[in-house]
Give the backbone structure.
Amino acid sequence: MRDDMDKVIVERPRRGGGVQGDGRGFRNSRERGSHLGMKRGHDHPKGLNENLAPLKRWLHKQVHRPWDKVYAELCSGIDRRSTVQAHIFEHIDQFVERGAVMRDGQVWVNSPRWRGGRRVPLREAAHVELFVHPVTGIVLPNRRLREARQAQQEAYRVARAGWPTDKKRHTVFHVIDEFTQWHRIDGCWFEVTIAPLPELRRTVLDVTYYDVLRRCPVSRRGGCEKPAFGSPDHREMYGRDHVYAAAMCKLSLQRVRERFGDSCEGPVPKHRARA
Protein backbone atom coordinates (compact mmCIF):
# COMPACT_ATOMS: atom_id res chain seq x y z
CA MET A 1 0.00 0.00 0.00
CA ARG A 2 1.26 3.47 -0.83
CA ASP A 3 2.60 5.54 2.07
CA ASP A 4 0.39 8.56 1.39
CA MET A 5 -2.87 6.61 1.19
CA ASP A 6 -4.37 8.70 3.98
CA LYS A 7 -3.69 11.95 2.09
CA VAL A 8 -4.98 10.54 -1.19
CA ILE A 9 -8.24 9.45 0.42
CA VAL A 10 -8.96 12.41 2.71
CA GLU A 11 -7.11 15.55 1.59
CA ARG A 12 -7.91 17.54 -1.52
CA PRO A 13 -5.57 19.99 -3.32
CA ARG A 14 -5.91 23.69 -2.72
CA ARG A 15 -8.36 25.59 -4.89
CA GLY A 16 -7.16 28.22 -7.29
CA GLY A 17 -3.94 26.58 -8.39
CA GLY A 18 -3.59 29.02 -11.28
CA VAL A 19 -3.57 32.09 -9.00
CA GLN A 20 -0.15 33.31 -7.86
CA GLY A 21 0.43 34.41 -4.29
CA ASP A 22 -0.61 33.00 -0.95
CA GLY A 23 -1.86 36.17 0.78
CA ARG A 24 1.54 37.07 2.18
CA GLY A 25 1.26 40.62 0.86
CA PHE A 26 -1.92 41.26 2.82
CA ARG A 27 -0.57 39.78 6.03
CA ASN A 28 2.56 41.98 5.85
CA SER A 29 0.72 45.17 4.90
CA ARG A 30 -0.33 48.01 7.19
CA GLU A 31 -4.00 47.44 6.48
CA ARG A 32 -4.11 44.23 8.44
CA GLY A 33 -5.24 44.27 12.06
CA SER A 34 -3.05 43.94 15.09
CA HIS A 35 -4.39 40.44 15.73
CA LEU A 36 -4.74 38.31 12.59
CA GLY A 37 -6.26 34.86 12.53
CA MET A 38 -4.55 31.91 10.89
CA LYS A 39 -7.02 31.79 7.98
CA ARG A 40 -7.01 35.52 7.21
CA GLY A 41 -5.27 36.29 3.97
CA HIS A 42 -5.49 32.73 2.64
CA ASP A 43 -8.03 32.83 -0.17
CA HIS A 44 -7.57 29.20 -1.19
CA PRO A 45 -7.36 26.93 1.86
CA LYS A 46 -6.96 23.19 1.58
CA GLY A 47 -10.20 21.25 1.85
CA LEU A 48 -11.08 17.80 3.12
CA ASN A 49 -13.14 15.25 1.24
CA GLU A 50 -13.51 11.49 0.82
CA ASN A 51 -12.06 9.90 -2.28
CA LEU A 52 -12.57 6.22 -1.54
CA ALA A 53 -11.78 4.95 -5.03
CA PRO A 54 -8.04 4.35 -4.29
CA LEU A 55 -8.93 2.38 -1.15
CA LYS A 56 -11.46 0.30 -3.06
CA ARG A 57 -8.99 -0.47 -5.84
CA TRP A 58 -6.33 -1.48 -3.33
CA LEU A 59 -8.72 -3.83 -1.50
CA HIS A 60 -9.76 -5.49 -4.76
CA LYS A 61 -6.08 -6.20 -5.47
CA GLN A 62 -5.83 -8.13 -2.18
CA VAL A 63 -8.14 -10.92 -3.36
CA HIS A 64 -7.01 -14.46 -2.38
CA ARG A 65 -4.84 -13.11 0.44
CA PRO A 66 -5.37 -13.77 4.17
CA TRP A 67 -7.41 -10.98 5.69
CA ASP A 68 -5.13 -10.79 8.73
CA LYS A 69 -2.18 -9.84 6.52
CA VAL A 70 -4.26 -7.35 4.55
CA TYR A 71 -5.49 -5.70 7.74
CA ALA A 72 -1.98 -5.62 9.22
CA GLU A 73 -0.65 -3.89 6.10
CA LEU A 74 -3.51 -1.42 6.27
CA CYS A 75 -2.77 -0.62 9.92
CA SER A 76 0.94 -0.17 9.23
CA GLY A 77 0.24 2.56 6.66
CA ILE A 78 -2.48 4.41 8.58
CA ASP A 79 -2.01 5.94 12.01
CA ARG A 80 -5.14 5.27 14.04
CA ARG A 81 -4.11 7.91 16.58
CA SER A 82 -4.96 10.55 13.99
CA THR A 83 -8.66 11.38 13.78
CA VAL A 84 -8.48 12.00 10.04
CA GLN A 85 -6.60 8.80 9.28
CA ALA A 86 -8.65 6.67 11.68
CA HIS A 87 -11.76 7.75 9.76
CA ILE A 88 -10.60 5.53 6.89
CA PHE A 89 -11.28 2.38 8.93
CA GLU A 90 -14.96 3.28 9.10
CA HIS A 91 -15.24 2.71 5.35
CA ILE A 92 -13.58 -0.71 5.21
CA ASP A 93 -16.85 -2.51 5.94
CA GLN A 94 -18.38 -0.79 2.90
CA PHE A 95 -16.08 -2.76 0.61
CA VAL A 96 -15.28 -5.96 2.55
CA GLU A 97 -17.84 -8.10 4.38
CA ARG A 98 -16.06 -9.34 7.51
CA GLY A 99 -19.04 -10.87 9.31
CA ALA A 100 -19.76 -13.83 7.01
CA VAL A 101 -20.86 -17.14 8.59
CA MET A 102 -21.46 -20.69 7.35
CA ARG A 103 -24.97 -22.17 7.35
CA ASP A 104 -25.71 -25.57 5.83
CA GLY A 105 -22.57 -25.39 3.74
CA GLN A 106 -23.37 -21.93 2.33
CA VAL A 107 -21.90 -18.52 3.09
CA TRP A 108 -24.32 -16.03 4.65
CA VAL A 109 -23.58 -12.32 5.03
CA ASN A 110 -25.19 -9.36 6.74
CA SER A 111 -27.86 -7.53 4.78
CA PRO A 112 -27.88 -3.71 4.56
CA ARG A 113 -29.06 -1.82 7.61
CA TRP A 114 -32.16 -0.50 5.84
CA ARG A 115 -33.35 -4.11 5.42
CA GLY A 116 -33.36 -4.94 9.10
CA GLY A 117 -29.82 -6.25 9.46
CA ARG A 118 -30.77 -9.91 8.94
CA ARG A 119 -28.45 -12.35 7.19
CA VAL A 120 -28.93 -13.38 3.58
CA PRO A 121 -27.15 -15.94 1.37
CA LEU A 122 -24.13 -14.62 -0.47
CA ARG A 123 -25.75 -15.35 -3.84
CA GLU A 124 -28.53 -12.86 -2.96
CA ALA A 125 -26.24 -10.13 -1.58
CA ALA A 126 -26.14 -7.43 -4.24
CA HIS A 127 -24.17 -5.11 -1.95
CA VAL A 128 -21.22 -7.43 -1.22
CA GLU A 129 -18.28 -7.29 -3.64
CA LEU A 130 -15.60 -8.77 -1.36
CA PHE A 131 -15.94 -10.96 1.72
CA VAL A 132 -13.74 -12.79 4.18
CA HIS A 133 -14.39 -16.53 4.08
CA PRO A 134 -15.55 -17.61 7.54
CA VAL A 135 -13.48 -20.83 7.46
CA THR A 136 -10.25 -19.97 5.67
CA GLY A 137 -10.09 -16.24 6.41
CA ILE A 138 -9.18 -15.48 2.78
CA VAL A 139 -10.46 -12.39 0.97
CA LEU A 140 -12.64 -13.63 -1.89
CA PRO A 141 -14.82 -11.91 -4.52
CA ASN A 142 -18.55 -12.44 -4.77
CA ARG A 143 -18.83 -14.38 -8.02
CA ARG A 144 -22.64 -14.20 -7.96
CA LEU A 145 -22.67 -10.42 -7.71
CA ARG A 146 -23.98 -9.82 -11.23
CA GLU A 147 -26.86 -12.27 -10.81
CA ALA A 148 -27.78 -10.77 -7.45
CA ARG A 149 -27.85 -7.23 -8.85
CA GLN A 150 -29.94 -8.30 -11.83
CA ALA A 151 -32.45 -9.93 -9.49
CA GLN A 152 -32.51 -6.79 -7.35
CA GLN A 153 -33.15 -4.55 -10.36
CA GLU A 154 -35.95 -6.85 -11.50
CA ALA A 155 -37.52 -6.71 -8.03
CA TYR A 156 -37.36 -2.90 -8.07
CA ARG A 157 -38.91 -2.84 -11.53
CA VAL A 158 -41.77 -5.07 -10.42
CA ALA A 159 -42.36 -2.94 -7.33
CA ARG A 160 -42.53 0.28 -9.36
CA ALA A 161 -44.82 -1.20 -11.99
CA GLY A 162 -47.21 -2.66 -9.45
CA TRP A 163 -47.43 -6.00 -11.24
CA PRO A 164 -44.87 -8.43 -12.69
CA THR A 165 -43.18 -7.59 -15.99
CA ASP A 166 -41.87 -11.04 -16.86
CA LYS A 167 -42.85 -11.90 -20.44
CA LYS A 168 -43.31 -15.59 -19.62
CA ARG A 169 -46.00 -14.81 -17.03
CA HIS A 170 -48.51 -13.70 -19.68
CA THR A 171 -50.24 -16.94 -20.67
CA VAL A 172 -53.98 -16.65 -21.35
CA PHE A 173 -56.66 -14.19 -22.42
CA HIS A 174 -60.40 -14.38 -23.15
CA VAL A 175 -62.36 -12.31 -25.66
CA ILE A 176 -65.37 -10.63 -24.03
CA ASP A 177 -66.54 -8.57 -27.01
CA GLU A 178 -65.07 -6.81 -30.01
CA PHE A 179 -63.19 -4.23 -27.96
CA THR A 180 -62.84 -5.93 -24.56
CA GLN A 181 -60.58 -8.78 -23.48
CA TRP A 182 -59.64 -10.33 -20.15
CA HIS A 183 -55.94 -11.08 -19.75
CA ARG A 184 -54.54 -13.19 -16.95
CA ILE A 185 -51.17 -11.95 -15.68
CA ASP A 186 -49.41 -13.84 -12.88
CA GLY A 187 -52.69 -15.15 -11.48
CA CYS A 188 -54.54 -11.80 -11.67
CA TRP A 189 -57.14 -10.87 -14.26
CA PHE A 190 -57.15 -7.53 -16.06
CA GLU A 191 -59.78 -6.02 -18.34
CA VAL A 192 -58.06 -4.66 -21.44
CA THR A 193 -59.75 -2.27 -23.84
CA ILE A 194 -58.67 -2.94 -27.43
CA ALA A 195 -58.53 -0.16 -30.00
CA PRO A 196 -57.79 -0.48 -33.72
CA LEU A 197 -54.80 1.20 -35.29
CA PRO A 198 -56.02 3.74 -37.88
CA GLU A 199 -55.26 3.04 -41.51
CA LEU A 200 -52.40 4.95 -43.07
CA ARG A 201 -53.03 7.85 -45.42
CA ARG A 202 -50.65 9.22 -47.96
CA THR A 203 -50.93 12.74 -46.61
CA VAL A 204 -50.47 11.75 -42.95
CA LEU A 205 -47.33 10.36 -41.38
CA ASP A 206 -47.41 7.11 -39.45
CA VAL A 207 -48.79 7.87 -35.98
CA THR A 208 -47.63 5.87 -32.95
CA TYR A 209 -49.83 4.83 -30.04
CA TYR A 210 -48.88 3.53 -26.60
CA ASP A 211 -49.81 -0.04 -25.73
CA VAL A 212 -50.52 -0.03 -21.97
CA LEU A 213 -50.26 -3.82 -21.65
CA ARG A 214 -46.96 -4.25 -23.46
CA ARG A 215 -45.74 -0.78 -22.38
CA CYS A 216 -44.25 0.24 -25.71
CA PRO A 217 -45.19 2.39 -28.72
CA VAL A 218 -46.98 0.67 -31.59
CA SER A 219 -47.92 1.76 -35.10
CA ARG A 220 -49.61 0.27 -38.11
CA ARG A 221 -46.50 0.42 -40.26
CA GLY A 222 -43.77 -0.31 -37.71
CA GLY A 223 -45.69 -2.77 -35.57
CA CYS A 224 -44.52 -3.22 -31.98
CA GLU A 225 -41.20 -1.76 -30.78
CA LYS A 226 -39.50 -4.09 -28.25
CA PRO A 227 -42.35 -4.78 -25.82
CA ALA A 228 -41.50 -4.87 -22.14
CA PHE A 229 -44.12 -7.57 -21.66
CA GLY A 230 -45.76 -10.23 -23.79
CA SER A 231 -45.38 -10.88 -27.50
CA PRO A 232 -44.49 -8.31 -30.19
CA ASP A 233 -46.97 -9.91 -32.60
CA HIS A 234 -50.48 -8.41 -32.47
CA ARG A 235 -52.24 -11.66 -33.39
CA GLU A 236 -50.34 -13.64 -30.77
CA MET A 237 -51.10 -11.02 -28.14
CA TYR A 238 -54.73 -10.13 -28.93
CA GLY A 239 -55.85 -12.63 -31.58
CA ARG A 240 -56.24 -9.83 -34.18
CA ASP A 241 -54.03 -7.71 -36.37
CA HIS A 242 -53.57 -3.93 -36.18
CA VAL A 243 -54.91 -3.47 -32.64
CA TYR A 244 -53.39 -2.31 -29.38
CA ALA A 245 -54.32 -2.04 -25.69
CA ALA A 246 -55.63 1.46 -25.10
CA ALA A 247 -56.59 0.98 -21.43
CA MET A 248 -56.57 -1.68 -18.74
CA CYS A 249 -57.77 -2.15 -15.18
CA LYS A 250 -57.56 -4.92 -12.63
CA LEU A 251 -60.70 -7.01 -12.16
CA SER A 252 -62.17 -7.76 -8.78
CA LEU A 253 -62.38 -11.31 -7.53
CA GLN A 254 -66.18 -11.08 -7.50
CA ARG A 255 -66.38 -10.32 -11.23
CA VAL A 256 -63.99 -13.12 -12.06
CA ARG A 257 -66.00 -15.62 -10.01
CA GLU A 258 -69.24 -14.50 -11.65
CA ARG A 259 -67.82 -15.46 -15.03
CA PHE A 260 -65.56 -18.42 -14.32
CA GLY A 261 -66.89 -19.82 -11.05
CA ASP A 262 -65.09 -20.43 -7.79
CA SER A 263 -61.92 -21.70 -9.45
CA CYS A 264 -61.09 -18.23 -10.89
CA GLU A 265 -58.91 -20.00 -13.41
CA GLY A 266 -61.29 -19.77 -16.33
CA PRO A 267 -61.83 -22.35 -19.05
CA VAL A 268 -58.99 -23.47 -21.26
CA PRO A 269 -58.51 -20.55 -23.68
CA LYS A 270 -58.18 -20.84 -27.41
CA HIS A 271 -55.46 -18.21 -27.54
CA ARG A 272 -52.15 -18.31 -25.73
CA ALA A 273 -49.45 -15.66 -25.83
CA ARG A 274 -46.00 -16.66 -26.93
CA ALA A 275 -43.82 -17.52 -23.93
About this structure: Residues 145-161 form the longest helix (17 residues). The CA atoms of residues 234 and 240 lie 6 Å apart. DSSP finds nine helices and 13 strands in the chain. Residues 167-260 form one domain.
